[in-house]
């Protein structure tokens, strides 16, 4: 899920689909229907953290490079950054 959030934020079109991965999620959801919400929250927090590191790296120590406005505009949960 985290990779999907990051791809969407960075404009990357994913090309890999793993049926086994989806099958594993189906097994988890059969045991705990709320697991997907906890996983989505954790993935969102991780993606936000990585995107912040990405923004900081783009700005560089000497102010090199401008932050990407598309990434800076919102966080993964839709709130304004």
TrEMBL record:
Region (Disordered): 60-81
Domain Polyvalent protein metallopeptidase positions: 1-41
Protein's name according to its UniProt entry: Antirestriction protein ArdC
Species, as recorded: Sphingobium indicum (strain DSM 16413 / CCM 7287 / MTCC 6362 / UT26 / NBRC 101211 / UT26S)
Gene label: ardC
